[in-house]
User: What shape does this take?
Amino acid sequence: MRGPCFATVPSLMIRHELRLLASLWLWAARRTDGAAAGGTVFGYTRGQGTMMAGLGFVCVIETVMMSVLLRDWPTVHLVVLVLDVYAIVFVVGLHAASVVRPHVLDPDAGTLRVRQAVHFDVRIPLERIASVRRELRTTHERTDGELDLAVGAQTSVTVELAEPVAYVTFFGRRREVRVVRLHADDAGGLVQAVERARDGYAVP
Assistant: This one.
């Protein structure tokens, strides 16, 4: 399948930025995106909170330092200030997107929705799950048919599928996977919940 043409890249970037801004609003309103009434959410931000806070702090320090260094060049100072403020908003938006878009297990719909901020959103039918287990990995190699959604360079849950599941990449390309690795703050709880939910959707 052909990927999106170059002309669509700006629109994808704009869509990405708008979703980050929407995540900030949801975060401020203490709302969660995509959580069904009968579903259970599983967060995955505990492993990245400190890192994102540190990155945001560095951005703030850089903004202050550049303001001091460029105070005698008002035009340049304004341009750099706008870029620095945008960088801060971007970092906070990434963390907010992870908070408001958790993994969602919805037994009524028969799906496990695996997400990573606004970058990945994969719906896995429970009937296609062959096995799910708690497995800590800190190294990942890019392999066809596998998707690694690491947080803080680690995944803690591995889902193996009896049939491939399709998802769409950031640039609109369609991919199929048979193994999905993800991180969850409560990896054991997620595994147990999925195993219980699979009882009615067991693979023959």
